[in-house]
Structures are given as C-alpha cells and as structure tokens.
Specification:
heterodimer, A: 383 residues, mainly alpha, 13 helices, 71% helix, 0% strand, B: 175 residues, Four Helix Bundle (Hemerythrin (Met), subunit A), 2 domains, 7 helices, extended
Chain lengths: 383, 175
C-alpha cells in the first residue's frame, strides 16, 4: 500500500484532506471573526488609552461571544420596501466566495483543501465575485445611503483589484507557478519572497487594505457620510454574516495570501520534523498581519472618495506596472539568479518611501496656488 | 474504483444551469434579476470549462464576466431610469416566432457539434502552460492587436465622457 502523507493511503487522504480543510475553514472563519473583533477592540483601546471590553469573561474575552449570541437571537427585520429575495441573497453572495477561497489556502505541509495549479488566479477570481453581492445588497436595500455605499464599494473594489492582481503577477513571474503549494515550497529557508520582492508586497498590502474595506480605505461604510453604507438596512444575523463573518473572513484570506506569497507560508523552524507545526507558524504569521491591519486602522484617518480613486489610478497602478516591467525584464535577463530582482525591488521601495513627501509637498503647493488664485479676485474687488 | 458517472451528471446539472439561466435572463421583467441570472449563466459556463480541463479559462470567465461585466451592467441599470411597474417586453409576446428562430439556430449547431471527434481532454496538468504558450507565440499578433484596440476604446470613452473641471476653466478664462 503506498503511504501518503501521515502514513495514510492516498485514496483515503484525498477526500479526507478536503474534509479537514473545510472543517478548518469553517472553524477559523466562525471563531476567527469573534477573535478578530475582540482583537480589534482591544488593540484600538490600547492605542487610544482606553480599557476596551473587560466585563464579560476574563479580560473581556467572552464579550464577542455574547455579541454573537445577541445577533443570532435578534428579530429578523426587513424593511417593507426592500427588494424581495435579492435582499436575502446578498449576504450569501458576499459570504460564499470568501468561504470558497479557503479551499486553496495551505495551512501546513499537506493540510490544504485542493492543490489547484491556478490557486492564485482562483483566489483573485473569488475576490472579484464579492463585488456582485455588495452591489446587489446596496440595490436591494432600496435606500439611498445603501445604494451610494454599494456603488462606492463596487468602484473601489474594481479599481483596487487591478494593482492587487498586478502585484501578484510579479510573484508568479519570479516563482514560476500559480499554485499556493509551489509558491510556499519555493521559499524554503530564510530567503522568503519579501526579501526578493518587497515592492510588490507593499503594493499588494495597500491594495488589500482597500479590497477588505479597512481604514484608510473604508469609504463604503463611512459612517459620518453614509450611515453604514451598503449595510444600512441589514440587522441581526444578516448583518453579522455580511460584516462580521465576511469582512473578517476576507481580512484573514488576504493576510493568508500575504503570508503564503511573501512570508513563506507554513514554513518555519521545526516544520520538517513535525509537519503539524506548520499550522501554528501559518496562523501566527496570518494573525501578525491582521494585527498590523488593526494598528493601521487605529492610526490613519479615512481618505476622501476622490483621493481614494486618484491614489489607485494615478499612484498604485502605474507603480504596479513599473514593478512588473522591472521584474519581468530582470527575470528574463538573469534567469539563474534572483539577486538583481531583489536589488531593483528594494530600490523601488526606497524610491517610493522617499517620493511620498515630495508628492505630498507638490500637492499642497498646487492646492495653495489654486486657493490663492480663486481668492485673488475677491481680494482685489474688496480693496 | 472509477467515477465515470459523475462527469455526465455534473455536465447535465451545468447544462440545466446554463439554459435555465439564459431563459430567465430573457423572460424576467425585472432587469436586476436578469443581470443576476446572467451571472449565474456565466458561472455555469465556467463550470463547463472546468469539466473540459480548462481551469484557467474558467477562472478568467468568472473574473471578467461575473466580477466585472455583470457589475458594469448593474451599474448601467442603476444609473438609468427605472420604473417599478413590470412591463412585458416586445420580444416576450412573440413566443412562436422565437421558438422558430431558436430551432433554426440550435438544430444546425447541435448537429454540427456531433461532427467533432477530437480526443477527450486529459485531466491533470492544467491548461495554463498550453494557453500561455499559444497566446504568446501563435496568437501574439492578434493578442497585441486586441489590447491596442481595447486601449483605443478606453481612451475614446474617457474623451467622450470627460468634462472640464469648472474651476480650471474659470482660472483659464481669468488669465
């Protein structure tokens, strides 16, 4: 009998690993949302010098469980003017693609639902399907805030998908595969992809913040302008599915992609000896990025909608195209070594970091010039 | 142990999905529902591509048609005039004529499709290398022409819809 992973017959292992992956995904999505909401509150509380939740359970750990129970037991409220089954279908349309993404995330050596050879493409595809659910939700709510929020969200998601995919392409170029397993395997040892392609990591992470509606890009639910955006008419567990499960599930998926593509996935010390240790490393890395996203949320203010769009189309997309061009040319010119790509990518990161103050100063100068030009006639008329 | 019966069953389900979705797109009065069923049809088509061993094409089908084109159509619907009253469209009153047209197209296509005798696709390996090789070697020229065409269309759309910033225009007039 041919021994598969963990000494199990491959014929049994193939369906078994799908079951394990689905169980892990459900477990991590449902509990991850609870844990992440708790983390979000606690981290923001720490940064803002507050206490955060502390009444329910030790250190307030059970607060989000209590919230979830409240959401489940809430009355199912549907406004009379909402659009029939669209309104009901929208949370599922947002939730299902997110859940389906977990099939290709490699938790450890052999703990992955399916080793798709187009894993990366599959993930971007599912990411693009979320937009449909959000637009439908905004439409079906029959509410102008929800509609504007849904359309904003769709515009934002469609725009930021482009730099996101372009950043992924550079990794696929260097690794030579779209399979999540191959990408992880290619980063054995300490030289993970982030040392070779830091610039595409920076681009992806910024675009991913926008894709998952995190601050500074959380315009679709800008409560000062739009009540709660496309979620306005939703309450109870529909709201819970849309916001808590889907948003935090998407955050986890994006952080898992970052971990797999740039930080070596499940690999870490001691994984060769005990393969199950990979789950621990993977989870630790993923939660590291989740905490980073929450830190950013507590630090940065929200962008304006025109700033958001111009940052994507005039900033991120040209930078991503330059990144692809450089990586592709260098990969073609030096097929045996990755050192030139790494040098070029680090140079791009330094240029990016150094360029931000310049661009900022020029923008301020044009704004001031415009203000002066529009104020001048009034001043002349007064004097 | 073989699973020969699975593939025809999946194919049948997907075919029902494609045809039922297409019929729903044409028959439904509410345009948003039609758009959603169109997305469903595209998804079923993607399933067909997976069944044929063309996962990459399936992924692009979903990425472009479900993720972008359907959303674009929904945008178009939402920004155009909309009335709640369901109206029977012109085409929906002409069922016999429609049946004749469908038969006239479908029967030759079905008969023609039986004339294909190529080998069934091999599972595993995927279609990505084959697709990439053919796009960048045999079909490099049409591929580039198509991208230039799309670029021209995009520039044209921007030129057609662009409005001058009133503030800038005022500043130019003042000078």
């Amino acid at each position: 009998m041919p021994a598969g992973p963990f000494g199990i017959d491959p014929l049994i292992w193939a369906p078994l690993r799908l079951v394990i992956a689905v169980a892990l995904a459900l477990f991590l999505v449902l509990n991850g949302a609870l844990l992440q909401i708790y983390l979000e509150r606690k981290i923001q509380a720490i940064i803002q010098d507050r206490l955060g939740p502390y009444h329910v359970g030790p250190w307030g750990l059970l607060q989000t469980f209590a919230d979830a129970l409240k959401l489940i037991s809430k009355e199912d409220v549907r406004a009379a003017a909402t659009d029939g089954w669209f309104f009901v279908a929208a949370p599922a349309l947002v939730f299902c693609p997110m859940l389906a993404s977990w099939v290709v995330l490699p938790f450890a050596q052999d703990i992955v639902g399916a080793n798709l050879n187009i894993g990366l493409l599959y993930l971007t595809t599912l990411g693009s399907m979320t937009v449909l659910g959000i637009v439908i939700a905004g439409w079906a709510s029959n509410n102008k805030y929800a509609l504007v929020g849904g359309l904003r969200s769709a515009g934002q998601l469609i725009s930021y998908e482009i730099p996101q995919i372009l950043a992924l392409v550079s990794v696929a170029l260097v690794v030579g595969s779209l399979s999540m397993i191959d990408i992880t395997r290619s980063q054995a040892g300490p030289f993970v992809n982030v040392l070779i392609l830091p610039f595409s990591f920076v681009l992806y992470f910024i675009a991913a913040l926008a894709e998952t509606n995190r601050t500074p890009f959380d315009l679709p639910e800008a409560e000062s302008e739009l009540v709660a955006g496309w979620l306005t008419e939703y309450s109870g567990m529909r709201w819970g599915t849309m916001l808590a499960l889907s948003e935090y599930g998407n955050v986890t998926v994006v952080c898992a992609i970052v971990t797999t593509l740039w930080f070596g996935g499940w690999q870490g010390p001691g994984v060769e000896a005990i393969p199950l240790l990979g789950v621990l490393w993977f989870t630790l890395k993923v939660y590291g990025f989740i905490v980073l996203m929450m830190w950013i949320r507590a630090t940065l203010p929200r962008l304006r909608i025109d700033q958001l769009m111009s940052f994507c189309w005039k900033g991120l997309i040209p930078m991503a195209l330059v990144n692809i061009l450089v990586v592709a040319v260098l990969a073609l010119a030096f097929p045996t070594t990755k050192i030139p790509i790494a040098i070029a990518s680090w140079v791009l990161v330094i240029l990016f970091a150094a360029g931000v103050p310049f661009v900022q100063r020029r923008r301020l100068a044009t704004l001031r010039a415009r203000a002066r030009a529009s104020a001048a006639p009034a001043v002349r008329a007064a004097s | 142990m073989t699973f020969d019966f699975v593939e025809p069953v999946v194919f049948a389900l997907l075919s029902i999905g494609v045809i039922a979705g297409g019929v729903a797109v044409v028959m439904l009065n509410r345009i948003t529902a039609a758009a959603l069923f169109m997305a469903f049809t595209f998804l079923s088509m993607a399933g067909m591509f997976v069944l044929l061993g063309a996962e990459t094409i399936a992924a692009f089908q979903v990425l472009i048609y479900v993720g972008a084109i359907t959303v674009l159509i929904l945008f178009g619907v939402m920004f155009t005039k909309f009335s709640d009253a369901p109206r029977a469209l012109f085409f929906q009153r002409q069922a016999p004529l429609a049946a004749v047209f469908v038969a006239a197209v479908a029967i030759p296509v079905t008969l023609f499709s039986f004339s294909f005798t190529s080998a069934p696709p091999r599972p595993g390996g995927g279609d990505l290398p084959a697709l990439a090789t053919s796009v960048f070697t045999d079909f490099a020229f049409p591929f580039e022409i198509a991208s230039v065409l799309l670029l021209a269309a995009m520039v044209g759309a921007i030129v057609l819809t662009r409005r001058d910033d009133p503030e800038e225009a005022a500043m130019r007039r003042r000078r």
